[in-house]
Specification:
CATH superfamily: Protein tyrosine phosphatase superfamily
Strand content: 5-15%
CATH class: Alpha Beta
Structural class: alpha/beta
CATH topology: Protein-Tyrosine Phosphatase, Chain A
Number of domains: 1
Oligomer: single chain
CATH architecture: Alpha-Beta Complex
Length: 147
């Protein structure tokens, strides 16, 4: 069952995907899939490498930024920011429920000053995710000077 949740015109997030979801993503013009789920997190979950190989057959680029639930790192946020900037076309990020992917998108977007914190929280809410608790962290990331 395809459950892509649009957070911006470019970025959608989803719970765990499979090959039929990759087919739907290809049909929707997705150019990059970002995997935010570590392999082996749950029994029966598709392996990331298998999905990446399949995505390549459909002409979709793949980025793997696995994050263990509740353990977001600055490195993961930076990697997500880089991945989001790596293509101008549609992007789909996924994890177990979509929450980690949406949170990483929000933090990376704040760090790159792509949107105001209130707009990030509102876009996430429209997609069904509550990032209001991350607003102080987003404000902090927005205030940071980066090289």
């Amino acid at each position: 069952m395809t459950d892509f949740r649009k957070v911006t015109d470019q970025v959608s997030v989803a719970p765990q995907i499979g090959k039929t979801d990759i087919d739907a993503a290809a049909d929707a013009g997705v150019e990059l899939i970002i995997n935010n789920r570590p392999d082996g997190e749950e029994m029966g979950q598709p392996e990331g490498d298998e999905l990446a190989t399949y995505a390549a057959t459909r002409g979709i680029k793949w980025a793997s930024i696995p994050v263990v639930g509740g353990q977001l790192t600055f490195e993961a946020i930076e990697s997500m920011a880089y991945a989001l900037k790596s293509t101008e076309g549609p992007i789909l990020a996924y994890c177990r429920s979509g929450t980690r992917s949406c949170t990483l998108w929000g933090l990376a977007t704040a760090m790159d000053k792509g949107m105001e914190t209130t707009d990030i929280v509102a876009a996430a809410a429209e997609a069904g995710y509550d990032l209001s608790g991350m607003a102080p962290t987003m404000d902090h990331l927005r205030a940071m000077e980066r090289q």
